[in-house]
Amino acid sequence: MIRRLVLLFSLLVFVPLAAVADYRELEALMATPPSLSGRFEQVKYLAALDTEIASSGRFAYERDREINWQTLAPIENMLRLTPERITSEQAGRVLSQLETGNNPVVALFSDIFFGVMTARWSRLAEHFDLQTRIAQSQWQVTLMPKEPRVQQVVSKVELQGGRYLREVVLHEVGGDWTRIRFYDIQQ
Amino acid sequence: MTSATTGRRSAALLWLAVILALCIGAWHKGVAFDTSVMELLPESEQQPLIKRATEQLAASYTDKLLLVISADDELRARNAVRQVAAGLQSLDSIARLTWQAPPSDRALDELFPYRFTLLSDEARVRLNSEGGAAQFQIALQRLLNPLSGFSLAPLRDPFSLYTDLMLSLQSDLPVSIDNGLLRLTAAEQPSYLLSLQLMADPFSLSVQQAVNAVLEPLVKEQQQRGINIRRSGLLLHAAEGAKQARSEMSTIGLGSLLGIVLLILVVFRSLAPLGLVLLPVLVGSLVAAAVTLLLFGRIHLVTVAFGAGLVGVAVDYALHFICESRVVADSTIRKLFAGLLLGLISSVAAYAGLALAPFPGLRQMALFSVLGLAAAWLTVVLWLPVIGGQRRLSPLPAAQWLDRWRNGYPRIGKTSWLMPLLLVLGLISGLVIWQGAARDDITLLQTSPQALLEEDRQVQSWLANGSSAAFLLVTGRDFEQLLRTEERLQPLLASLQDRALLQGYTALSQVLPSQQRQRENAELVRALYASHWPALASILHLSLQQVEQAQALMEQGTAAVLTPAQWRQLTTSQPWASHIINGADGEVATVIRLKGSMSAALKQALIELAAAEPEVEFVDRVGDISDLMSRYRSEIVDWLLLAYTGVVLMLVLRYRQHFWRIVVPPLLGSLLTFAGFLLLNDGYNLFNLIALMLVLGIGLDMGIFLSESSDSDHTWLAVSLSAVSSLLAFGLLALSQTPVLYHFGIVVLPGLTLTWLLAPLMRAPSTGELK
Lengths: 187, 771
Hints:
Chain A: Monomer. Chain A: Keywords: Protein transport, Signal, Transport. The structure holds 2 protein chains of 2 kinds. By secondary structure, chain A is of the alpha+beta class. Chain A is 25% helix and 48% strand. In chain B, 62% of the residues lie in helices and 8% in strands. In chain B, α3 packs antiparallel against α7 and α7 crosses α8.
């Protein structure tokens, strides 16, 4: 906890000084393992209800191949993303399956999700303007959509981390936002 | 003498006045060329709604020009798109360019009020089982997803039915947006789409030239950099057709003219007859073009190309006059008149037969040919005696040479083995023809090069555009009935998709369900709320007031039925306009468009599907055209038989038992040629038969003139000259790249040659002037 505070403090100090860096520097800072797994805790704010819904679960990914996003509470649900499709499963039963190949919205959504969760900066740079702040081994990135179409899916993304991605905040047009924190990250 | 001369003079002057009047009239009206491939297609014989639907679907192809830019590398492809788009800006006044994605579709939210009545197919399936449990789970999952992809409306649409609707409306789109550009999802290489909406007539030569002047250098430039550009659009085919017609006019047309000039120089050793020979041709073509323009408003380039072939026959009349005037001192015309008239009548009959073809282009050709012949004939009869005043009575060496050659020829009356041989040949040919199969292939009407057709097909298949020539037409009293019929068809079409026969389809009822269907949907949504809303509300920690508010919003939403009239006001209806066909008298119909290619099995399935529904019709224009071609083919077979019968009767009247000397050469020539053609090709078609009619016409000319002049050697010379010039004019069409003309020429060439070679076999002993 103290370490974290120190980190936060160092961030505050270094932010004004740190230059806006290229995402290639980020890539140098971060580990890019072929697979990664861990726990997540998520808070979603629904503007229409002015309420927050908390959820948590596990995630696992294989770089460029698959992301498994398993919500364990308050309900059980598995979201499986591959470059080809997004599948939603519950207790092994497929609820819905969307193909990226025939639906541009699904393709864009999948692209952003893959890009953000696996920190593929070159991929994200196609859709977003990146503002990067690096202080020692810690980094903060803000993504602003380049196109209105991306804006419709996500209006702003804030990411921060060190060797791994630690926290993501996704802002949506309607005022909804989702904050996800990652724990127990294992290669 | 003087009164006869005066009469001749005034007739010649009158003819000059007529020619001038026609030419001035046509010039005044304006000269307009037509190069449309479509003009060569038959007009629809079907009911007006089908015709309208076909036209409406074709229009989307007619006035668009699509470019697909592909490269191995995304970045290079995108750069190329920007360069080409910049280059195409100069076409601003002719075509509107679209190469960037339109600003995001906020307009789609106009469907939000109808989220409970316009359900997606998937949501409908989920709502139909277990009271919609699956939809409830999906809604929960969307609430918990890090990203929803669509903004959530937990009170107005807690089960995210609108999200499902949007997802289904946007799926199966062949184009995705990539860096603001339009990317084709089906292409393997990174490929981007550019679309030009033409604001000018794609058939206009000046528009074609303007577009190609900009487009071709751009394409070349990119190709040198290893970037592939594929094109699709009617304009390209029209331009290609025009280019081909122009080039063939200047190669085949010019070649035939040069050949004829050379022939005359060799035979007459003077250039003077050339003027006399070419004058009727020139006048004939001019008058034909003028009258065609006056009657049709515009003249097709293929007509003109064919008209170049007219040269050959029109030359006949002048040749006979000149040859004959070398040996007969006076009143050449009077001596020749009967033969000339019979010749004209038989040729006109042969050409007029072209008008039987179902294609407007061929009808124009028929008119052009008949008019050209008649005008050339009148010119020979009225002008040549007046101008061709200077006579040199000296036999032509060529006539003597040809006659010697002919005398070495066997004769049917003198050589005993000849008759059986010819009979056997004729019988064998007859047998081959009897066995011969027809091939009525629509590709015969294609004038575009194979490479361009393939390029076009590739682009259209990436865009998942089915042929605009095959579709289902649904008719009904009103929209409601139409949409219900479509909804009955939907599961049947889906099963064809499952059997992988049909790639996909688009139907109006997919975006605008019938009111009956919408009320059913509303009922399903009410059931969903009844069984799952309390559970969802508790997960969302909603207050009682919020729960009731959502319930009230649902009651309100399920009452919102979208009527066709309201739907038409929405921007989302715009891309669907081509699916709605408005008949002349207030009838409505819709078109179900089919994606992918049309297999025989799919065609059969669609025919059966349409047969079971009285309000549904399967329209297959390609098949229709093939059917039409085969119908006209069999009609022309009848016409040929009729023509031979008529000719035989006419000849019997004048020549009694000698009629066969005239009719056998073209008949046997045709039989041998046709049998040979069938042995070398896998089927005959309409255009081969039309060629046989021409062989008959010219062959009759030959026989009639020879008989009328009692086989004189100068007539033989004139006949031979006209046979060679006809070969030069029509036979050269065998070199054409246009399938229609090629199939014509390939039969005329051997047919006429054989007729000419057979004619001397049939002659009676010569009693001509140089005996």
